[in-house]
């Protein structure tokens, strides 16, 4: 473990993650870091007590080489937002100990999910690589931004998770998807400008902007997305399918086979501007975002992240 990349380490843990298993995970992390002094040059552990606290803690991470975040995509999103508020030259690297329902960012990085001990084993032997993040109207995202029906599904899963549903991961996303899609009526009219191209008018059912390939607990919405290529991947509909076709596309998205359909288009971009006629469902890393005008851009090589080797 002498080659551990961690250095001086701050661990931010959500004790409520994964139906309360975050508290056990945080205690294991504390024992691990205390028992194996060679993996760090000192450490602190901070537990969050409410929404937004991880952002504040990460923003104030002065003098640390690494910020580790233990929990699901929600606390990871908050931590990334906090790190991005720091100057680039004084921004600690990021490590993920995924303990949540969706764990999509962990999938992008190749981390073991919901196994704290195995995740630590990956991190202390890992290598550090720069990755991009996305930004929309000043809010950063590490994995996904979406508008339309898929955003409504993501928001529904977040609300059901907060209400302590027994479903998790893919099962939760699928049941929310079937509920939302069965009520689908029309689209959300918007004007979209991608990079320096001319604006186009769309009737948006889905418009997803991705750093990594998946959302919703493993749905491969942008199968070729690479978090280190300096580009954002987008998937959006160019036609409005009838409901049975829409439901079929939803099923195909689990494995990325929806990309073959003429109903959707996949692109790589650096920037997008979207103007909606009325406020659409919108989510950023699972959190609802309001508005009708959205300016989206990539921030290349914004974070240094520990990847398993």
TrEMBL record:
Residues 4-140 form the DAGKc domain. InterPro entries: ATP-NAD_kinase_N (IPR017438), Diacylglycerol/lipid_kinase (IPR005218), Diacylglycerol_kinase_cat_dom (IPR001206), Lipid_Phosphate_FormReg (IPR050187), NAD/diacylglycerol_kinase_sf (IPR016064), YegS/DAGK_C (IPR045540). GO terms for molecular function: kinase activity. Its cofactor is Mg(2+). Keywords: ATP-binding, Kinase, Lipid biosynthesis, Lipid metabolism, Magnesium, Metal-binding, Nucleotide-binding, Phospholipid biosynthesis, Phospholipid metabolism, Transferase. PANTHER family: LIPID KINASE YEGS, SPHINGOSINE KINASE. Belongs to the diacylglycerol/lipid kinase family. This is Diacylglycerol kinase family lipid kinase.
